[in-house]
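INFO batch 0412 | record 1 of 1 | parsing
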Amino acid sequence: MRWATLARWWLLWLCCSLTVGAGAQDFRDPAQQRFAVWPNIAVVRASDLAEYAQDRQAIANLHAGKGDPEKLVAALQAVDTLQAHAQQGALNELGRSLNVQLIAELDALARQRGMANPKLHFDFADITPQQLQRPMVLDDLKKRIDRVQLAGYITYTRLDGNLVQATFTLVKLRSGASQSFSATVPVNLLAKTLATQVFDYFEGARFSAHRRPASAGEWIAAAPGHMDRLVSREVAVRYCATQGAVLPTAAELEMAEAAGFYGGGVALREGGMYHVQSGLYDTALAQDGDSRVRPNFIASVPNGLYYCVRHAAPVQAAKAVRGKAQQ
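INFO prediction complete | emitting tokens
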């Protein structure tokens, strides 16, 4: 059937867009732009996607033609067709009702915050209610393709009772970049929950990326054989030396913990003891920095975890460690 072919193209194109978007610029860029969203949002049971998870060549062909006006028209046509077909089997007509409720919730959030021109707006220009209930004809789609930047689809799985697990994915039609929002809530709260996530993402403050402290070194994890077990200070120092590194100071470990595992720093175990230059850094203490350091009277006792830090001049750092060990 024709709807199945169009739906296949659309879903393969959207699924592959997750890979294309990786490593790209912020999905919300340009920062001051308002994005026109196609008003038909396909709502599909997750189990129905299985038949489309095949034919990698079709995916490659779609990506080879991304940005092509004809392909963009085909994508929007597939959204309309898939949305209409999926609605027939959707849970209590979840498809159309969720589509409308999601847009209404986004509008309500904008009104509550006094935003006359929110970043997302749905392009209903010259579209009749009847056209929203069925796939739009090709000529009408071609007239609208130049003013639409985003299209979206929702996949859902019904859980126990009235719980629904759903993912709303927005895709930039001309680049394939995508951004997804997920929720597991009662079905009557699904539209509001997804709308809040989308609204906060597009309208919330955009913070600048963190910079690594100028003095930050290169962090090295404990030796593979030392992972998740206590070792002595002597053992930790010797292993760090083999890496051209040293134990961190308490201040360095504090800053690395503040940066976090995903910000170029480290993750410390709650209630853990870590070897540092001046003793043992105790994460269970409420104080910060040097106030968390306990004296380490016996360097040969296995009593701490550790990280190593390699500074800008690793050779000099290694010599300093060896010199201390010989004293």
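INFO post-check: The chain is about 40% helix and 15% strand.
INFO record closed
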